[in-house]
Write a structure and sequence with these properties.
By secondary structure, the chain is α/β, with parallel strands linked by helices. It folds into two domains: 3-19 and 54-254, Aspartate Aminotransferase, domain 2; 258-351, Alpha-Beta Complex (Aspartate Aminotransferase, domain 1), CATH 3.90.1150.10. Helix content is 35%, strand content 14%. The protein has helices spanning 9-12, 20-23, 57-66, 79-91, 108-116, 133-138, 162-171, 227-234, 244-253, 256-281, 304-313, 338-351, and strands spanning 74-77, 98-101, 119-122, 144-150, 177-181, 203-208, 221-224, 286-289, 296-301, 319-320, 330-334. Helix 4 (79-91) packs parallel to helix 5 (108-116). The termini are far apart.
Length: 354
């Protein structure tokens, strides 16, 4: 059985939109796309009168190399969000199919499913943020088409072991697609699960340049999967997903010098994360600093709401995650610069009882 047998039949049969840029390559006089003949008279406007490549070859090849894959298994998208949306639309029929998630986790899995009209099945994490594999697999129904696993998980920061991911992939063969969201993988120090794709055609891995590569504003992500899954998603992705300036920014960040700076920045974040764990655990009013393999910490407080207000009044914005199940007493604090982290600690110490 092919993984495509689980996809929507109408999407498999869909004739994708064929853009002018895709239909004709080369040439020096470009009159096939109804573009403006002159670039805009603005700083950095050179070339912006032309549509970008639908899937810029240099960027696809660079990301394939970065993530240990091959270009035919990589689709470049607008962050991970677009990959999530494309996968749900390709595999889930409205009113018939479902996705399975493990809250508390990234909210866009459920949002994309509900927009598509797919049901959302939940197999919650434990209060310690642990994924119960038996419970997860037990929650899979005949209607389940996608199982989302975020590792490191947002907003808890916990990991799912590779052996557990492989167990899930094997159990879902012929039943559902396992989508492994590795948005925070660089902060874990572990190898990607993308190599599972060699063995299991029902595995897709999501990556992004928004976190460890400092390009949240450029919105560059990637879906890594078997070539046939990538081909399916290319049928429904908009024709020009990435603006040229975003592609240029990504290529700059992934250059030799960009990678050198990224390694330095990553080292700084990991050191600051370790420092913040120790410092926060010593503060009165802090119940728990959950273990994290991401660039943030989920912290439980005696008075999370009051702590949030106190930080906000001091100009420090953190994420109130108390609406998530199991995190009713928690805030999520991104690891900032040393000075930013010192500001957080200073505010929390000032508010602690004498």
């Amino acid at each position: 059985m092919s993984i495509l047998d689980l996809a929507r039949p109408d999407i498999r049969a869909l004739a994708p939109y064929s853009s002018a840029r895709m239909e004709a390559q080369g040439g020096t006089v470009l009159l096939n796309a109804n573009e403006a003949s002159r670039p805009p008279n603005i700083p950095g406007g050179e070339g912006l009168n032309r549509y970008p490549d639908p899937q810029p070859p240099a960027l696809v090849e660079t990301l394939a190399e970065l993530y240990g894959s091959t270009p035919d298994r990589v689709l470049v998208t607008r962050g991970s969000d677009e990959s999530i949306d494309l996968l749900v639309r390709a595999f889930c029929r409205a009113g018939q199919d479902a996705v399975l998630i493990s809250p508390p986790t990234f909210g866009m899995y459920a949002v994309c499913a509900r927009i598509q009209g797919a049901a959302v099945i939940e197999s919650p994490l434990s209060r310690q943020g642990v994924l119960d594999i038996d419970a997860l697999l037990g929650a899979v129904t005949p209607a389940t088409r996608i199982v989302f696993v975020c590792t490191p998980n947002n907003p808890t920061g916990n990991l799912v072991d590779r052996s557990d991911l492989e167990r899930i992939a094997k159990a879902l063969e012929g039943r559902a697609l396992l989508v492994i969201d590795e948005a925070y993988a660089e902060f874990s120090g572990l190898h990607s699960a993308a190599s599972l794709i060699d063995t299991y055609d029902n595995v897709a891995v999501l990556r992004t340049l928004s976190k460890a590569w400092s390009l949240a504003g450029a919105r560059v992500g990637a879906c890594i999967a078997r070539a046939e899954v990538i081909g399916l998603l290319r049928r429904i992705i908009p024709p020009y997903p990435l603006p040229s300036p975003c592609v240029d920014a990504a290529m700059g960040a992934l250059s030799y010098e960009g990678r050198r700076l990224q390694r330095h920045h990553l080292h700084e974040i990991l050191n600051e994360r370790a420092r913040m764990v120790v410092a926060l655990r010593e503060l009165p009013g802090v119940r728990e600093v959950m273990p994290s393999y991401a660039n943030f910490l989920a912290v439980r407080f005696d008075d999370a709401a009051g702590t949030y207000r106190r930080l906000l009044a001091a100009g420090v914005v953190v994420r109130d995650v108390s609406k998530y199940p199991g995190l009713e007493d928690a805030l999520r604090i991104t690891i900032g610069t040393g000075n930013e982290n010192d500001r957080v600690l200073s505010v929390l110490r000032a508010g602690a009882p004498a």
